[in-house]
Every structure is written in structure tokens, then in C-alpha cells.
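Record type: ASSEMBLY
Status: queued
Input:
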Amino acid sequence: MCLAVPARIIEKDGDKAVADAMGNKWNIRITLTPDIEVGDVVLIHAGYAITKIDEEEARKTWELFEEIAHFEQERLKAEQAGEED
Amino acid sequence: MLERIEQARKAIHAACEKVSRPIQVMEVCGTHTVSIFRHGIRSLLPQHLKLLSGPGCPVCVTDQGYIDVVLELAQRDDTIIATYGDMIRVPGKGGSLESLHRSNIKVVLSTDDGLALAKKHPDKIVVFVAVGFETTTPPSAVVVADAAREGVENFCILSGHKLVVPAMKALLGAKNDKIDAFLSPGHVSVILGSDAYKPVVEEFKRPCVVAGFEGVQIMEGLARICEQLADGRAEIDSVYGAAVTPEGNKVAWKIITDMFEPCDGAWRGLGVIPGATMKLKDEYKQFDAMHRFGIKEVPTEEPAGCQCGQILCGLMDPPQCGLFGKKCTPDTPVGPCMVSTEGACSAWYKYSS
Amino acid sequence: MEDNKKIMMAHGGGGRLMGELIQKTIVPKFGDGQSVQLNDSATVDVPAGKLCFTTDSFVVKPLFFNGGDIGKLAVAGTVNDLAVAGAKPLALSLSLILEEGLELDVLEQVLESIGNTAKAANVNIVTGDTKVVETGSADGIYINTSGVGVLADHAVSSFDRIKPGDCVLVNGNIGDHGMTIMSQREGLKFDTPLKSDCACLHELTEMLYAEFGDRVKFMRDPTRGGLAATLNEVAQSAGVNVELTETSLPINKTVQTAADMLGFDLLNIANEGKVLAVVSADVANKAIELWKSHPLGQNAAMIGTVSETDSPLVELVTKIGGRRIVQTPYGRELPRIC
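Status: finished
Output:
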């Protein structure tokens, strides 16, 4: 009843959004979290964002959060390297 | 991270030593059951701290009668059954969705997929197998609201949604001084808020600690529980502050209460628990499969000899059940404790053979 | 060939249309430009030694996926079964079951893929068969490939050579193929950069056998059922315990997250470009280094050890230091919400 994965909102359009979880892009609904903005990290369950995540708190208590941060850094670096080519 | 695990482990051992009697902590969330197994949590705990897998996931609490209704509907030529993958192997008296071998049974990842199926196949009635606790109820509520608003008439849900707190109270009320504390479900608590466990704490004086699903989360949650028990406290606490607030997601809860209301319903292995099942409100009955197909009520016969109720509450060990290993095995499961791959009986069977 | 863009029942009927399909569409994709006869049977020159023989059928859906297609799978799968046994692939047969209505373009693409994969693996398709079944069967294409090869002297892969103290190695990231397929199934589609690891592994296997000979006890490609299925078979058949360390499993983070989203355990998920090798402890590190020098072995790692036991099990030391059992998977992974 509880499988949920954190992901960052990268696009928002009304009730719908696209969330990025370590490179996997999910089309989700944000009906339950209408105040979400692009850039927020949310928990996704069964295709719905169920809450915004407090990133500072998450950094302290979630191992996965370090991984997300690390992954995003690596991806930024790769993008920048690609642009410099 | 390993340091934090080690710290939590030491804290658990120290607190358990102070308590010096066997402790039983129950988790009521299938995802906790699976995480505890996947991380090998039990192997890190002291001998006399026992983790009980309570009635915590759609797989284990959905009773035979509900499955039998789904199977009947699946065998019609005018239906499509849309279901989360979890339900495919849950057995009713007539077998499971898997054993039917029918092409009108579709595994979906969301209620939206179910509604999309209905729009794509206007000549069929899509029945969504709506199971799950408070985390999974809002998507069902939203999809019925969508179907109503968009006039999708060939869509309905068979609601088996359940409520966690009435179940926790029923477990403690009916029988049981064997449950010392609850590891409360992380994502149900996102919706409900950690304050929802006040009745359990105040009425029954049992600690309730909310935890997420990572190994660190579970260990730290258990440490807080053991410390409370050692101090003789019974409080609500949470190590999942990143996602859980005391008041929960009010938007989600309103959506649930707009569309659903509590009713009495059967829980596999536990019988009928009053007010712990959700059904669609009367004004949405055309989206209720029960109404749609003229099903008066879901039969609630418990399989003879099944002791899951006792086992779920920690009052009995699996080998003490007469069906264990004989009529009831992981391949031919009867009750929830064997149906769920990490349920008490399933785990006992696999690790003791 | 008539101006048909789709497969018809007659293409499997043994008559003119079938002959044209074979000669004009199928055969030209194979061989090295010389005229190739694809008769009902083929004669193959077999060097002295033990003959290794394998067969496999391929029914993957979707037919095309990131990193490969059913054609590539069909060749790599059989080449790999020969390779892990220590046999140099000599020849393959190709049996096609085509669904009536299949687009000819699709067939040509798959055949192209078969031809390219076989060429890269230095193995010839020497015989084959074509059948057509009614619309609604075969999901487009089903393929069976069988293969023969000669066992190299220095290669004897077998369960009973596995001994306590041996090490378990894998050549790279696990679960990529199964998660890629899952992510592209209808109804489960989400947009991912996931890519199947489908590849011919004969160079990797040959490397180990040639360098370390009988220090290589056993090799297998962990396809359906993933590492869990193969290692449980190892444990049971060799009568040993296998202990894996979760932190040493090579895993792509994007693949892990995709698995988390669907509730899957990557140990149970299929691989199509991975070799599990059980080797003596004294050559384990060198074997890893050797694999790392090959493009298909960049993420090679030692993931576990074998020990003595009365009741064979596969155990995992989890990343938080706990222990749990890795069971043989049921055989069907279903996405969960719970």
C-alpha cells in the first residue's frame, strides 16, 4: 500500500506533471498536491504525487537523498561537458 | 550511513536489555514487511525483539469473498479487469486472477490507466480492483470524480479500500496484549498525518513511531520504539519528518471523504472490522461495481482451519496452524500470512525448510 | 515477390511465395556475400572434440527495444549458451514463426539484426525453417535458434567442480535488460534512458577459459529469473552456500530507481549480456582485471563467495549489514503498489 519513490518535478501543466527519478521520467498527476512547483521533490505513489518532500530533512534522514543529489550533480556535469564540445 | 545503522542497532539492544522481557513490535504496512525482509533487518535485532507482520497490505487483507467477486466479473465477456499487479495471485475460493488465464485482465500502474482503458474500449465495462489503504484510496477517489465529470459510463471500481487505524484498534481491542508497539506506515501517514495514531496511543498506551522504508529509517524507528518501551512511555513519534507531518495531506483526505465513506467489511483472517472498509458514497453508485452488477454483498466466509487471525496478532506461530505446510503452502496459499510472500507463514515456510 | 508489404499465410506454405521469401528476403541477410544455401539441413565441418549443442526460443515483446531487438537476442542468446559452456560457436539454425499480417519491413529489420549479430560473433546461420501462423498468434515473430559448437579442451564448466572458497564474479550491471523491456511494455510505458545489455559474450568467456583453464569452475548467463535463479541453481546443484554482498553488486542507478518504482528486486530480473562465473579464489582478482579490459566487462565485480553447508542457500549481506535469503523467483515479476 505504500510503495512510493521520490522524484523531482521537471514540468507542470495544470493537474499533470512530469517527474524525473534518476533519469526515469514519469507522467504523474498532482491532484493531491496542487501547490507543487517545478523543481520540488515529491513522493510518487500509483501515479500520483502524495506530498512534497522537505529536502533539508530528507538530506539528514534519507540515504537515497544523497544519491539523488549526487546523480543530479553528475548529470549537470555531463550536460555542461556536452555543451562545451 | 553505516554508522547510523550501528548507532540504531546499539540503541535497540541497550533499550531491549532494559526492558528484559520479550517485545513484539507490529508493522502494518506491506512495504515495511518487504523492506524489513530485503534489508535483513531481523538479523540485526536482539533475540527477544520480535517483529510481527500485521494485516498490512492489500495482498494479505483482501478477503476471499472480494476476490471471488472479481473472478466472477473477470469471467464475463463484457468486462475488462484493471488491477494493480499485487492482486494477480491472491487466491479466492475459485482460484486467482492468474489462474483464470484470461486476456481481459490487465495489470495497470494507476487508476488513470484504468480510466484510459474504459475510454479505449467503450463496448466493455472496465472494473478497477480498488484495494489499498489510505495512501492508495485518493487515486481511486480522483478517478471516480474524473469518470463522473467526463461522463465515462463504462467505468466502475470494486472498492476494497481499508483504513489502518480502526484495524490497529481492533487488533489491540479484541485479543491482545502481545503487541507492544507499532511501527507505523510511512506513506499512509503522509496522507493521514502522524496525529492519526492518537487513539492507539491514548486508549491503548502503545508507542506508535512512523518510519519510512529505507533500512536506516526502519532501524531508527525501531530504536525510538524500544527507547519508549524502556522508559515506559507511549507516544507518537516519527523519523520520517521529510515526508510526514502531524496533520497529513488535507487535500488528499478531503478527496477521500468527498467520494467514500466507511462501512463494515471483512478482512482476511480477521473477520469483519467495523468501519474499517471504504465504499463509494451513494451519489456515485453508478461507478460502484457492486451496484453496477447487482451484487448485494461480498460473501465473507473464512476458510476452515485458517489461523491467520491469531498469527497476525502474534498469538500463534505458523507451525501451530493445522493447515500450515499441508493445505496451505506458498504455492497454494489459503490465508493472508501465506498469500503475502513476506507474510509470517510464507517466511517461516521458506526459511525453515 | 509480389508487391506485398505483409506476411501472408502462403509465405509459410512451402510454395513459390515461401521460396521467394527465403531467397530474396532471408538468405541475403546472412553469409559473407557468397551464395548461401539455406536448405532443410546443413553439413558442418566439425573439428575433433566434444560437440556442444543448445537450443533457445525467443518470444520477447516488444520486438524492438532500446539496445536491441528479438533478432539480436535470438543470436546472442544461443551464442552465449555455447560460450558459457566453453564451446566455440560453429553454426546456428534459425527457425521463424511469423504472424500473418506482419509487416515485411519489420521482418527485414529483424533479419538484418540477426545477420549483423551473427557476423560480429563469427558464426554462420546454416539452416532454417519458416512457418506462418494466423493473425493473433506469435506476437509478430517467434524465433528459435539452435547452435552447435566444439568444447575447448581447457573449458569444463560444471556444478560439481564448484568448491567452498570459490568466488562469484559478474561482468557488469545487473537487471538492465529486464527493466528495459518492462519499461517499454504497453501499459507500463515510462520514458527512460534504459538500455538492454543484450550482447554476445563469447570473447569474455573465452578470455577466462584461455587464461585460467580449470580455475574457472562454472559459467552461466543469468537470463530469465536473473542472478537469483542462476545462483540458487548453483547452490542446489553444487550443494554449497553462496553468499552475496549487496554493496558489491554492480547496478546502474537509473535501473535501480526504475525497479524501485515498480517494486522489483533486480536480483530477479533478466540479463542478456551478463556472465556469472565461479572461479578459484586465487584467480578472482585477475579475472576481474581481465574482464575490465574488455568493453563488455567495464563494471566487472566480485559479488560473492561459496562456502560449505548442509542446507544449500543463497544469502545476501545487505547494504545495512543485515542478512537475508535470496530465493528462487516465482518466475513472473509483477509491478506492485504495496
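Annotation: The longest helix of chain C spans residues 104-120.
Annotation: Chain C touches chain B through 23 residues (CB under 8 Å).
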